[in-house]
Amino acid sequence: MIGQLLQTPIAYLKGVGPSRAETLQSELGIHTFQDLLSFFPNRYLDKTQYYKIGQLQRSNADVQIVGKIVNLKTVEQKKGKRLVATFVDDTGEMELVWFRGQKWIRENLKINVPYVVFGRCNWFNGKFSMPHPDMELLTEHQKGLKVAMQPIYPSTEKLGNKGITNRVISKMIQQLFMETKARFSETLSDQLLQELHLMPKPEALLNIHFPKNQELLAKAQFRLKFEELFYIQLQLLTKKALRKQKIKGLVFDQVGERFNEFYEEHLPFELTGAQKRVLREIRSDLGSNAQMNRLLQGDVGSGKTIVAVMSMLLAIDNGYQACLMAPTEILANQHFTGIKELLDKVGVSCALLTGSTKKSDRNQIHEALESGELHILVGTHALLEDKVQFQNLGLAIIDEQHRFGVAQRAKLWHKNLLPPHILVMTATPIPRTLAMSLYGDLDISVIDELPPGRKPIKTVHRYDTNRLKVFAFVRDEIKKGRQVYIVYPLIQESEALDYKDLMDGYESIARDFPLPDYQISIVHGQMKPVDKDYEMDRFVRGETHIMVATTVIEVGVNVPNASVMIIESAERFGLSQLHQLRGRVGRGADQSYCILMTSHKLSSEAKTRLQTMTQSNDGFEIAEVDLKLRGPGDLMGTQQSGVLNLKIADIVKDNDILKTARHYALQLLKSDPQLERPENLVVRNTYIKILKNKNIWNYIS
Ligand code: ADP
Ligand code: MG
Total domain count for the chain? Predict the structure, then answer.
């Protein structure tokens, strides 16, 4: 019954009405009583605690302090006058500041009388200051009714203009509690409530909107965050289970001749422990009768290619074909050359198909594919053309997944009766938390170990004013026989400005590194593919010493002799991109270097990025920092932004709760996959309701 009541349109709540209802809908997506109930404050003003000036932290928090004003003065500034009061308690002093209404305040404030002040504290010019504090005489404050924690709801400009202030929202919610008599139903099982000592739902809702104190608030928050993450995990895990049940896969049950021959006789190095583990994971997927859908994460240089090659051998030994798709021609070329060299020895045929494959070659490839004569096809998007028909594609590997959309992946799919197994490889480490929430329905393998003998890349930050020294260092490295990358930022391939930066840079480098002693390659997005490849090839063959480029070289390119990566205007790059670029060096036996060049003007976020880069070589660690700096939306690219439309949990800060939620969701599905047991009825019902309301479902499918 209460459930129905909560579905009432918000206009019917006393004090709302049609006009406000419309604003609530358009601005906050609040349509029903239920929506309002789960519209949570994003912070609270804690008036239960009193701070001492000596205890204040430089974190801009709201604080409540008891003290006296000992001095009041007007300070003249270019921008206008402000009124400044010196406020003291027995531990220190700070400033209270007013920019408006100064006359009234000056006339009414009492000197040397105890006040309670409340407001946001800033650290400014070596002092704490509080602009426009709420003030009350201590005597009045002691007489008045104690306000505990005041909730602050997210707001928008339009809400403010329409008079829907924080107070009004709070009033509406009070009204909602009255009309429903706060008889909200429980949405988690007794077992979960007991095991995790969770606050019951009605109490949690009350305390999230009207907390009595910090402790109760914390319990309410934990309960609601857990619930939110628990149901998301439950959905992801159910979806994964369904996929495994429904989508039958091709069964590769034998480890055959070619695989064994390659492993025993032609493997160019001993596999790392991580590579072996991942191969076992893939083998077990391929041998089961469900379709594999696996994401392989491994930092740049961790050796994903050999894992791909050996997985393809598994497919071929079982009578199937395989393909490997790369995001750029350069990469596809490199993969093709590498794979061909490895697999010629075991009699596996391999072809390359890209946009610049000649028509006659193309036709030959099409035929060989259809007849099954060709085992492996490597290429770019060209693989997705309708003319490309495999006889029996068993495994599709996609390198550097973030460049391919989901739709494109689906296209590969439909080339078969039974879908091929899919392995997506990425060098962009996705923090585990995020991977769990976004790809909770995929299987994930991680290569978390670099091949032995790699020297960690030395990374330094240098200002543009030190360019001469940097160039002297480059000359020394070139003298030792090494090669150097110099990379310019490219925000948009078409941006004329970026292009100009690159060309200016190129000219100045050409002056500092003159012919004939120095040969320079240049690669950028506005070049024709043939020219790009030509330049790239010259560098790969060691004919040029310096490669001046935009970020087109970011992914995958492998030139072991290159030992220096210089990144110009490094402050303009995101962390993951910097890390990707750095991964182009450190591939050989020599000590490698990454030099981050910037001007002196740096935002604090840029400083954090540079510092992270100079301190860490660990892609996962860097990804975590990136996630903290930018949030999940940006990290995953616009495609996925807004994906995690969470009401209360925070994917970064609530990492631990997420893990707990996943653990319990897994456990529940293991013990009661259909949620049939009476004690799980409440979970089942809530789950069904969530699916019906679609508010969470949207961001999963
Ligand atoms: P990525 O994961 O970035 O694609 P690659 O597969 O290109 O990495 O491997 C990077 C380099 O490391 C290659 O030159 C490859 O031959 C080499 N490599 C890979 N695995 C090993 C290993 N187990 N031992 C030694 N070298 C390895
Ligand atoms: Mg690679």
Answer: 3
User: Which is it for the CA torsion 595, 599, 601, 606, positive or negative?
Assistant: negative
The response to whether residue 298 sits with its C-beta less than 6 Å from ligand 1 reads yes
517-543 per-position pLDDT tens digit: 999 999 887 788 788 888 888 998 999
Rg (CA), the chain: 31
The response to whether residue 269 sits with its C-beta less than 6 Å from ligand 1 reads: yes
At 5, phi and psi to the nearest 5? Answer: -55, -40
Domain limits for position 387: 257-286+303-426
What is the pTM assigned to this prediction? Answer: 0.66
Same domain, 497 and 607: yes
Ligand 1 pocket member 451 (CB < 6 A): yes
Q: Which long-range contacts (CB under 8 A, 24 or more apart) does 640-644 make?
A: 640/438, 642/699, 643/438, 643/699, 644/437, 644/438, 644/699
Q: How far apart are CA 354 and CA 338, in angstroms?
A: 16
Residues of the chain with confidence (pLDDT) below 50: 406-407, 634-643, 695-701
Nearest residue to 568 (alpha-carbon basis) of 492, 463, 692, 414: 463
The CA 399 to ligand 2 mean position distance, Å, reads: 7
Q: How far apart are CA 190 and CA 679, in angstroms?
A: 7
CB of 23 sitting under 6 A from ligand 1? no
Q: Which atom of ligand 1 is nearest to the CA of 270?
A: 23
Q: 450 alpha carbon to ligand 1 midpoint, in Å?
A: 8
Could you report the per-residue pLDDT of 68-89, keeping only the tens digit for each?
A: 999 999 988 777 888 999 999 9
DSSP 648: S
301 CB within 6 A, ligand 1: yes
Output the DSSP codes for 385-444: STT---SSEEEEEEESGGGS-HHHHHHHHTTSSSPPEEEEEESSPPPHHHHHHHSTTSEE
| SS3 of residue 49 by DSSP | coil
| Domain closes at, from 616, 633, 661 | 616
